[in-house]
Design a protein that fits this description.
Elements (H helix, E strand, L loop, with lengths): L9 H8 L3 H11 L4 H8 L3 H9 L6 H11 L3 H8 L16 H4 L3 H14 L1 H13 L10 H14 L2 H19 L4 H20 L3 H18 L2 H17 L3 H17 L5 H20 L3 H14 L17 H14 L3 H8 L10 H17 L3 H14 L1 H5 L2 H13 L6 H11 L1
Helix pairs in contact: 1-6, 2-4, 2-5, 3-4, 3-5, 8-11, 9-11, 10-11, 10-12, 11-12, 12-13, 12-14, 13-14, 14-15, 14-16, 15-16, 16-17, 16-18, 17-18, 18-19, 18-20, 19-20, 20-21, 21-24, 23-24
């Protein structure tokens, strides 16, 4: 489809380079001779909302930006330029964070600062990630992006959240640099980096940041045209929405993602795994919204979809779902529905060796611990959490909801077997 000459004009290109998506939308609206009210009616909001959208540089609702841009005809590559972080203003050799003072440090000093920041834990590293999201650092060019992305995923799978947070700014910078090629594969990689960032931020309970990275993941997935990248990004955004008590929006998003994958024909194991994962997330989302019938139906559909999958997902698969992983989701679904007995029954035959990563082994422990805690069994709760901690300390230490259970155990059952050991292990590293 030919691009309207408007979007190749000096004005449009300057607005994109200045990172002003709202101004681009205004340009397109005026090109159509539409009033604020006309565009508002077409995208389902008020004229005042459109006016704010066009005037502001800070994006509060990326979904609305997409709808408005699509409606007025802003091409994808122009919109993406306007939404990208500002380019780095220093070379990789002199800049390691967004702070100017760091550019003046010698290399040894910079390495010391980075090591100290990593040692400080997730809270300090979140500030560095904020800098990278607001103003992309210079691409470090530390090696092939595929290998580094695989390494970052391995950190997530081990529950090494602090090390992953330390790696993300450089990974984001290099992925953005790669996406300037406009090749769909490079754009999908950038979406995958942002999806991974969302996943670890959700673990840490940093939902506002996770919403931002999930929105960016969806943006780049849409541009890339990759259904798997789109599915991964939609899943992360749905999880964020669920944590922000927007259950209806989360369900609609996941239903749409599952429908899109099903329409593809599910001809490969990779797409079949993605579909099963979408159903699992949809089931849990429905359960958290209190929709028992739909949650159980989706869980059963996920179980059927997983039957064709291998017992262990091949290394490197984006959606590492398996029949055992679907059964683990059933534990969470029943727990979310308030049926701890059914949750414990669903997980009674699951064993850590059925799960290939430390993160999933630990998740088995934490999910069973939540069910035991709801069943008012403190000793079994402590035992399950200790198992989880031994598999991956970060899964217990870094997740706010799980830390709360540890705290409550220590306060209410300090003499119960395993509680003192668990509390000491977790608080020692917080």
């Amino acid at each position: 489809m030919p691009v309207d000459p408007l979007w190749n004009s000096t004005t449009a290109l300057q607005l994109a380079a200045q990172r002003r998506p709202g101004a681009l939308i205004r340009l397109g609206r005026q090109h159509h001779s539409w009033t604020l009210a006309v565009l508002a009616g077409r995208i389902g909001c008020s004229p005042a909302t459109v006016s704010r959208l066009e005037r502001r540089t800070r994006i509060a609702d990326l979904g609305l930006v997409h709808r408005a841009a699509r409606e007025v005809g802003v091409p994808g590559h122009v919109l993406m330029t306007s939404l990208a972080p500002p380019p780095a203003t220093a070379t990789a050799a002199t800049r390691v964070t967004a702070h100017q003072r760091d550019a003046e440090e010698d290399p040894m000093r910079r390495r010391t600062l980075l090591a100290a920041t990593a040692a400080a834990g997730p809270a300090a590293l979140l500030m560095g990630l904020d800098d990278a999201l607001a103003d992309a650092p210079a691409p470090p060019g530390a090696g092939p992006l595929d290998g580094r992305l695989a390494g970052a995923r391995a950190l997530y799978d081990r529950g090494a959240h602090t090390r992953l947070l330390a790696a993300l700014p450089g990974l984001i910078a290099d992925a953005h640099h790669g996406a300037t090629s406009r090749r769909s594969l490079d754009q999908a990689r950038l979406s995958a980096v942002y999806s991974l960032a969302s996943a670890v931020l959700i673990k840490l309970g940093s939902y506002d940041r996770a919403r931002l990275t999930a929105d960016r993941a969806r943006t780049w997935a849409e541009i890339s045209g990759s259904p798997l990248a789109a599915g991964a990004a939609a899943r992360e955004l749905a999880i964020v929405l669920r944590h922000q008590d927007q259950h209806g929006a989360a369900q609609r998003l996941m239903s749409s993602a599952a429908d899109d994958l099903e329409a593809s024909g599910l001809r490969t194991d990779a797409t079949a795994a993605a579909y099963a994962q979408m159903l699992c997330t949809l089931a849990y989302t429905a359960a958290r919204a209190g929709q028992r019938t739909e949650a159980l139906a989706m869980a059963e559909e996920a179980r059927r979809a997983a039957r064709r999958l291998p017992q262990a997902a091949p290394p490197g698969r984006l959606f590492a779902i398996s029949p055992a992983a679907v059964d683990l989701y059933a534990v969470g679904v029943h727990w979310a529905l308030g049926d701890a007995g059914a949750a414990l029954d669903a997980g009674k035959n699951l064993r850590p060796e059925q799960f290939p990563t430390a993160e999933r082994k630990a998740r088995l422990g934490t999910d069973m611990a939540r069910a035991w805690w709801a069943w008012q069994r403190p000793e079994q709760t402590a035992r399950a959490l200790l198992d989880a901690y031994r598999a991956s300390p970060g899964e217990v230490r870094d997740r706010p909801a799980i830390r709360r259970i540890v705290t409550e155990l220590a306060e209410q059952h300090p003499r119960t077997s395993g509680v003192r050991e668990l509390h000491a292990a977790v608080t020692r590293t917080i």
